[in-house]
Specification:
By secondary structure, this protein is an alpha/beta fold. The chain is about 65% helix and about 10% strand. The strands form three sheets. It has a six-stranded mixed beta sheet, with helices on both faces. It has a four-stranded antiparallel beta sheet with strand order 2-1-4-5, with helices on one face. Strands 7-8 form a two-stranded antiparallel ribbon. It holds the Pfam family ABC_membrane.
């Protein structure tokens, strides 16, 4: 065991009693199995040596021990897996939280398939460590100690030393040696497996493009080569495991031969049934030693998985840090002030020195070509990016100093890159409801025309959707996202291409209802769109180009200036 797995032990807090119970039951199971063999050996030897019938109490003891072993085995599986699954749930929550703390740029640069492997596959491998490593290791060590003590009492100190040495070598020495030899191979295999999963996820997401370029066969060939590489690495691990098993079996068999030889030298085999009982009991305890070997089979993979999990958990958060001591208090109102806001993606400029003010209940349309920085600006306004300069204030308070749950009760967004979670269409809308179990507000369903949308879906509101589900069009996806945003009843809404993909009549109808509702309720709207048809009836417009706001005014004012906005409108 090394540092990654040692650190994994920290997650058993709160479940120590379950792990301890599982270990105790494992010990009972191992020793009951050994006792079955030992008592059977004693009965047979006693009949052969003394020529008398065994007592009925011994037969009853065999039955009781057998039942005890079965019950202990069953209870061990229940308690061990229950503890492991609870711990895995904690790990998955921590991973999900870590991913949620990554900013948009980091998530975009991470491979979706690799994230999925870390969140699911790696955590599943750790289950083996919690459920099938700790208890077997403890029971094996205890069995070796008691076996050596019994050999010393019933045979000789030399027999005790021989049994202890061979069992320690078979149970600890050989597994540790082969674990070290297979560690790097397991890490390479896990990396190859993760890369293959990521490649497959990305290829499936772009299958239509591959078909258009007639590149499906070439892509399949590439995946086949990656799979063969992973298979080769796994085959090497299995060969090491098989060779180790051969050595362990030889060593365990030799230990019995040595014990029989030493007992015979002491003239015990023909006179003392307990000597045969010991030999048989040790044979019955082989399961304890072999249990370690089976655990060691997956220990390198578990260690590699632990390293990858800890790599994610140890990465610093990209999200703005919030602590109670950093809070400036609640906003005094809902006016928005963007002050000299700047953010870049490495060497690529995102937004630069952007400033504007928006009073409560006002509507600002920010327009610009694709790549002008609209989505980056929207993300920064929501407080999901740590700006390199400047800040965003709501009611005079920097959004980064507002406790996150409070912040997202004040400001919400309908974004163009909405990712649906796996579930029904209505469940995705209900994600926006602040309190779980609360019905979706009527205005959210009415404005986004959700009842009509549900009639278009195969199973209505129960239609199952996911992030890449093609049952949902881009326009339908955005209506679901808009309804979820409206369901929050926040005082400020950021609309990032929220109406893209809708046909003209539906777009005008939904947008009109949304703006009318916002005016009545005093909701502030920051709308980002490349579609200039939205600008004709908008009182205040700002133009974004190259990450900077270059002009602002009403539609008529901007057209009269014949600047960047006029160029976009005419050309």
């Amino acid at each position: 065991m090394n540092m990654p797995l040692i650190r994994m032990l920290a997650f058993i807090r709160g479940h120590i009693y379950k792990i301890a119970l599982s270990s105790l039951l494992r010990i009972v199971n191992v020793f009951a199995g050994s006792a079955l063999f030992g008592l059977s050996g004693y009965l047979l030897a006693d009949v052969l040596i003394s020529r008398r019938q065994p007592q009925s109490a011994l037969w009853i003891s065999l039955a009781v021990i057998g039942i005890l072993k079965a019950a202990a085995r069953y209870a061990e599986q229940i308690s061990g897996h229950n503890a492991a699954f609870n711990i895995l749930d904690i790990l998955r929550q921590k991973l999900f939280h870590a991913f949620s703390e990554k900013d948009a740029d980091s998530l975009a640069s991470s491979r979706t398939g690799d994230l999925a492997v870390r969140a699911m596959g790696d955590v599943d491998l750790i289950e083996i460590f919690y459920a099938h490593t700790l208890a077997p290791a403890l029971s094996a060590v205890l069995f070796i100690l008691i076996a050596a003590a019994a050999a010393a009492v019933l045979v000789s100190p030399v027999a005790a030393a021989a049994v202890a040495a061979m069992y320690l070598c078979a149970g600890i020495g050989i597994p540790v040696l082969f674990q070290a030899a297979s560690s790097s191979a397991a890490q390479r295999y896990r990396g190859a497996q993760a890369a293959l999963s990521a490649d497959l996820s990305e290829s499936l997401a772009g299958i239509q493009d591959l078909q258009a370029f007639a590149a499906v066969d070439a892509e399949q060939a590439r995946h086949r080569r990656s799979a063969e590489k992973a298979y080769g690495l796994n085959q090497g691990l299995q060969m090491l495991s098989g060779f180790r098993d051969v050595l362990v079996d030889l060593l365990l068999g030799t230990s019995l031969i040595v014990l029989i030889f030493l007992a015979a030298r002491e003239n015990l085999l023909g006179t003392d049934p307990l000597s045969w009982a010991l030999v048989c009991a040790l044979a019955g305890g082989f399961s304890a030693i072999l249990g370690i070997n089976r655990a060691v089979d997956d220990l390198p993979k578990s260690r590699a998985a632990a390293q990858r999990i800890l790599q994610v958990l140890d990465e610093p958060s990209d999200s703005p840090a919030w602590t109670a001591s950093s809070a400036d208090g609640d906003p005094s109102g809902y006016d928005i002030s963007v002050e000299n806001l700047s953010f870049s993606y490495g060497n690529n400029q995102g937004i630069r020195d952007i400033s504007f003010r928006l009073k409560q209940g006002e509507h600002l349309l920010i327009t610009g070509q694709t790549g002008s920085g609209k989505t980056t600006l929207a993300t920064a306004i929501l407080g999901l990016l740590e700006p390199e300069g400047g800040c965003v204030r709501i009611g005079g308070i920097d959004v980064r100093s507002i406790e996150p749950s409070r912040r997202f009760a004040l400001i919400t967004a309908a974004r163009q890159n909405l990712m649906l979670v796996r579930g029904s269409a209505m469940e995705n809308i209900e994600l926006g409801v602040p309190a779980e179990g609360t019905p979706v507000p009527g205005h959210a369903l009415e404005i986004a025309e959700i009842p009509q949308l549900m009639t278009e879906l195969p199973d209505g509101e129960d239609t199952l959707v996911s992030g890449t589900d093609e049952q949902i069009s881009g326009g339908q996806r955005r209506r679901i996202g808009l309804a979820a945003a409206l369901a929050r009843s926040a005082r400020i809404m950021v609309l990032d291409e929220a109406f893209a993909g809708l046909d003209d009549d539906l777009r005008k109808r939904i947008r009109g209802k949304l703006l009318d509702w916002a005016r009545r309720e005093g909701i502030s709207i920051i709308e980002l769109s490349h579609d200039l048809s939205d600008s004709v009836d908008t009182a205040r417009i700002a133009v974004l180009a190259g990450g900077s706001l270059i002009e602002s005014g009403s539609y008529d004012e901007l057209m009269e200036r014949r600047g960047a906005f006029w160029d976009m409108a005419v050309l």
